[in-house]
Amino acid sequence: MSEKKKKVVIVGGGITGLSAAFYMQKAAREQNLPLEVLLIEATNRLGGKIQTVRRDGFVIERGPDSFLIRKKSMDILAKDLGIEGELVRNATGQAFILVNGKLQPIPGGSIMGIPTEVGPFLKSDLFSWSGKLRAAGDFIMPRSGIDGDQSLGHFFRRRFGTEIVENLIEPLLSGVYAGDIDQMSLQSTYPQFYQVEKKHRSLILGMKKTSPKQAPQKDSHGASKKGAFHSFRNGLSSVVEAIEAQMEPGSIMKNVKIDSVLKQGEQSVLKLNSGQTVTADAVILTTGHMAASQLFESYGLLQGLKEIHTTSVATVALAFPKEAIVQDREGTGFLVSRSGNFSITACTWVHRKWPTTTPDGKVLLRAFVGRIGEEAIVDLPDDEIERIVLEDLGNIIEINGKPDFTIVTRYKEDRPQYRVGHRERVVAAKAELKREFPMVKLAGASYEGVGLPDCIDQGRAATDEVLAELFGE
């Protein structure tokens, strides 16, 4: 006797939706479940922010370029896809902060901006002696006493003072969110710092005790030779292509949007802009939060998600002949302090950090522009953004000649901001759906982590939840 198939629709073909779809189909095959999976993507391509350009021997990422190895889910996904042999680890080297127009090395022993070695910190020109003395207050300062959420800026300024925050901690911690450290949620972005303070009181002593020991081998700059990041030899799109190739035939719909969602008993009926309707036993919604809130606006649900702000960013990849760039410092790139008069927020020397991306005799730079309060540049024409970026870079390193080509990529109102109270907003939204549309799950970068492994974790968690509800433990 054949059991009637259950249907799961996954909305959104970014890494969250792709991982959910892949693992949903994997579970169906391995457990012989009567399950049909359909992935619906509004654009003509899968991958979301992941987009690799392969041109003239270069491997150029338009979006994310790597992921933390210590977060295991992407490595596990690569193994499950059979492409783990394509993983490459980043080359290490000195990273810099641009302060007052000068590239200053990030002090050795800094763990996410927290100084854990006295010598390199005292020798650093990133800070004045008064700034160093103020940071030393962390050794004697009591715990904050705040049990709820607070901003990263408030938390770190209290412990280390403004100078350390602005010249080191803010560039390091706010970059991935392109956010304002004085509005970013400690609880939702870097909760480990709160836990370290709670347990050890001093962040410096606590990070020193809890962080993994550095490898004994060091390069000439004192950096560990073992990179902390992975990517794929032929770019991050490799994982997108592998998932798409292994999905069941007919299980992906592109260029299709969801116009509305109706509840029909214990099922959802999705009306598509193509005129079709799809009835689903479960829906995993991996779109951005604004699209999710609009989809349920007529029900008065998920409207709190509109309080999640977004910002616009752009990246500019620049390919040069090797002789065009004179770099008197060995390193992998730099971050820019907000105190500087520059439009760029960071630059990666990609040919050094990821040698497999760049042909011999060439140099690949990748600059970033746009963050909270500085988004206007993203709206400029490509050639104007290129001009501004080249002018900034020319004031930092010596550039002789024009690039062979540039690639400008914009992400408009796309980077979710995890502001104070973010976790409560997400919990409330999920509770609303559980009460009114229990067959619909939320997952993705807007909610519980923007990194690729975080998104994969959310996709897998939603998959596990759906399978448990449809088929039991």
TrEMBL record:
<feature type="domain" description="Amine oxidase">
    <location>
        <begin position="15"/>
        <end position="467"/>
    </location>
</feature>
<protein>
    <recommendedName>
        <fullName>Coproporphyrinogen III oxidase</fullName>
        <ecNumber>1.3.3.15</ecNumber>
    </recommendedName>
</protein>
<keyword id="KW-0274">FAD</keyword>
<comment type="pathway">
    <text>Porphyrin-containing compound metabolism; protoheme biosynthesis.</text>
</comment>
<comment type="similarity">
    <text>Belongs to the protoporphyrinogen/coproporphyrinogen oxidase family. Coproporphyrinogen III oxidase subfamily.</text>
</comment>
<keyword id="KW-0963">Cytoplasm</keyword>
<feature type="region of interest" description="Disordered">
    <location>
        <begin position="208"/>
        <end position="227"/>
    </location>
</feature>
<dbReference type="InterPro" id="IPR050464">
    <property type="entry name" value="Zeta_carotene_desat/Oxidored"/>
</dbReference>
<dbReference type="InterPro" id="IPR036188">
    <property type="entry name" value="FAD/NAD-bd_sf"/>
</dbReference>
<dbReference type="InterPro" id="IPR002937">
    <property type="entry name" value="Amino_oxidase"/>
</dbReference>
<comment type="function">
    <text>Involved in coproporphyrin-dependent heme b biosynthesis. Catalyzes the oxidation of coproporphyrinogen III to coproporphyrin III.</text>
</comment>
<dbReference type="InterPro" id="IPR004572">
    <property type="entry name" value="Protoporphyrinogen_oxidase"/>
</dbReference>
<keyword id="KW-0560">Oxidoreductase</keyword>
<keyword id="KW-0350">Heme biosynthesis</keyword>
<dbReference type="Pfam" id="PF01593">
    <property type="entry name" value="Amino_oxidase"/>
</dbReference>
<dbReference type="GO" id="GO:0004729">
    <property type="term" value="F:oxygen-dependent protoporphyrinogen oxidase activity"/>
</dbReference>
<keyword id="KW-0285">Flavoprotein</keyword>
